[in-house]
Amino acid sequence: MGDVAPVGHALRQYMRSNWIRFHSLPGSKRYPESELEVHEVISRHCQIASELFVPGEQLYAYQSRYPLSRRQTNARQSIAGRQLREASLEFPVNPETVAREDDDVLVTRALVTTWKPDFYDRLVQEIADDLEYMVTLVSPASKNVYCPYDGGMDIFVFSRGVPELEAKFSAWLSGRPDRL
Fold first, then answer.
1. What local confidence, expressed as pLDDT, does residue 85 receive?
2. pLDDT of residue 5
């Protein structure tokens, strides 16, 4: 990730060969409307993340936001109800265009956690409901990156082949030529 904001849409520009986008619901539906669909969203996210991470593995959890005043930033930075008080850093979304627009920079906070599949169900549901956003989980060991969003997940896989995961979960891929 280095000098780029740790969010899927920014990372995709620089790690495209390792990128896969999976959709959370059939037909690329964006938001769940029933308990059955909520269960499907959580199940898909858990299955994909479990391909990237092993139980008990150390992860870095990042949450990014567009810059606000420091007071607003401190009040709004949380991951699923857990206040993050670590130092925040600013990352460019696209290093070639930094400082041209307000949305070229993201303020990012991080914490160290461990992968426990069912522990993240609440976070996945909040992201699916558009209550949380720009959250990224990264394995320092494998370098795998998981970026859930309100319609699916962008992943960047380094521990195995992209074609292997695309074949295993092919029904969850986009049919669009740009793979979005």
1. 44
2. 84
CA angle 27, 23, 98 (to 5 degrees): 125
- Phi, psi at 122, each rounded to 5°: -60, -45
Specify which residues 113 forms β-bridges with: 59
Burial class (CB in 10 A: 0-12, 13-18, 19+), 179: middle
Rounded alpha-carbon distances, angstroms, from residue 42 to 15, 24, 35 = 26, 8, 11
Mean pLDDT by 10 residues, the chain (180 residues): 81 94 95 96 96 95 77 51 50 58 74 89 93 94 96 96 96 92
Closest CA to 53 of 9, 114, 97, 109: 114
CB 164 within 8 A of CB 158: no
Type of residue at 103: D
What is the crossing angle of helices 121-128 and 35-52, to 10°?
Answer: 120
* Residue written as token pair 């461990």: 114
Please give the Cα distance from 79 to 73 (Å, whole number): 13
